[in-house]
Write a structure and sequence with these properties.
Number of strands: 16
Strand content: 15-25%
Bound molecules: N-(iminomethyl)-L-glutamic acid, fe (iii) ion
Order of helices and strands: EEEEEEHHHEEHEHEHEHEHEHHEHHEHE
CATH class of the largest domain: Alpha Beta
Low-confidence stretches: 381-387
Distance between the termini: 27 Å
Shape: globular
Length: 387
Amino acid sequence: MAEVYTNVGELVTNDPTHDGTLLGLIHDAAVVVEGGRIAWVGPAATAPAADTAHDLGGRAVIPGFVDSHAHLVFAGDRAPEFAARMAGEAYAAGGIRSTVAATRAATDEQLEANLVRLLAEMRRQGTTTVEIKSGYGLSVGDEARSLAIAARHTSETTFLGAHVVPADTTPEEYVATVTGPMLEAAAPYAKWIDVFCERGAFDADQARTILKAGIAKGLLPRMHANQLGHGPGIEVACEVGAASADHCTFATDDDLRNLADAGVVATLLPGVEFSTRQPYPDARRFLDAGVTVALASDCNPGSCYTSSMPFCIAVAVRDMRMTPAQAVWSATAGGARALRRDDVGVLVPGALADLAVLAAPSHIHLAYRPGVPIVSPLPEGRLPLET
Ligand code: NIG
Ligand code: FE
């Protein structure tokens, strides 16, 4: 059964062969969908016949957002911590332990209900692919169950046992646990392995050891790097061939050269700087250095509790010197690169039919109309709808 979406005012394909630009725009376009995949895109006037037709009334259509960085398996609330931050306190990631305590105390049902609620929120705002990390369990059993719950909702699951060292153990003991029994229990549910490489969390040697243990177990590396200050995170991410180094708030020119040479995506997380009052990274510096940039939400209860990719786009354009086109590309095709996926983030024949419709004539409105809910998903995507 083929369906055609026609009278699309502006279609963002992310396939530059259409018009020679980053977003591969087609005006007055149509999209044919069959069996959950894109069958055809092009000018509406030349669209092939289909079983059913939907007139989109001149609206813009973009690929669904690919949110390549989120921490959605948790319990508890850290609103008071946010309020204290806005009153002048610094973010130091110390609150992670309070989420760990709440997460350990929650039932599987409570954790999954919270996850499903957040996924529904994301879906309503146009996200169709999401990566979900563990990292609030920090025991063998709690990390494994966090990932088992996440794996019921996405194939992009990430083992982040190395988030912080829990209070009841030493760093040496904990690294041995993460690379031993915890990795063993987590690996069946995880595609990726991640480390928070930062002063106060894990240093370069520990991060290298943990990522290499994950790689030996068949997991693919990614890294939380250079969030709170300059450190070795980006360097180690490049050394081990990570798909992405995330945050990159404090990156030197050498770091940028390293990322470009190693082909490691820099995933920038504008909501974190917004919610922690840290300085924004200058995305244009990364782009000028030839680095592939992704934008993601980092939705988590501590450093950034937004699930909204349109919000991230608006902030990246306003405060990180991205053009609207670059920000939209980074939130779709860039996220797909960060997850090493070529079937999402683009609207080309064969890709998944993950479409987002804008109640607007162009992608620019995502940054031009901040905070306005102009996105709706179409058709039913792979993330669960409201339950
Ligand atoms: O990506 N930086 C480490 N982890 C999260 C924050 C975790 C928390 O504060 O709960 C992040 O920002
Ligand atoms: Fe994160």
